Amino acid sequence: MFGRLGAPEIILILVVIILLFGAKKLPDMARSLGKSARILKSEAKAMKEEGRTTTSSAPAPGDEQPPAQRTIQAAPGDVTSSRPVNEPTDTTQR
């Protein structure tokens, strides 16, 4: 039923999207979606790298250090969203 989308259906969907959002807002929406994807990708990469260093050099239970503050870099062209953040601490016992 919904598995076969041909060219006329795709064109109809695109026309409806343009009518709903307007041609002026579509590039801005695509740009913000791209920025979000880049931020998500960089955060996932940072979490993966952090996981590798944490598991390879796990501190002893009594050697807890306060979490270091790091800065999330803004996307290229976005100068207002760079801000320092505190990393959440993992207080669960494993």
What does this structure look like?
- The chain is mostly helical and about 90 residues long.
- About 50% of the residues lie in helices and about 10% in strands.
- It has 2 helices and 2 strands.
- The protein has helices at about 5-20, 25-55; strands at about 70, 85.
- A two-stranded antiparallel ribbon has the order 1-2.
- The longest helix has about 30 residues, at about 25-55.
- It is elongated and about 60 Å long.
- The model has no long low-confidence stretch (mean pLDDT about 75).
List keywords for this structure.
mainly alpha, two-stranded antiparallel ribbon, 94 residues, 2 strands
Give the arrangement of secondary structure elements:
Elements lengths: L6 H15 L3 H32 L12 E4 L10 E4 L8
Antiparallel strand pairs: 1-2
Mean pLDDT: 76
Number of helices: 2
The biggest beta sheet reads: 2 strands, antiparallel
* Estimated helix fraction: 40-55%
Q: How large is the radius of gyration?
A: 22 Å
Compressed to H and E, one letter per element, the order equals: HHEE
What characteristic shape results from the CA principal axes?
elongated
Strand order of the largest sheet: 1-2
Task: Give the termini separation.
Answer: 48 Å
How would you classify the helix and strand content by structural class? mainly alpha
Low-confidence stretches: none
Number of strands: 2
Taken as a percent bin, the fraction of beta residues is: 5-15%
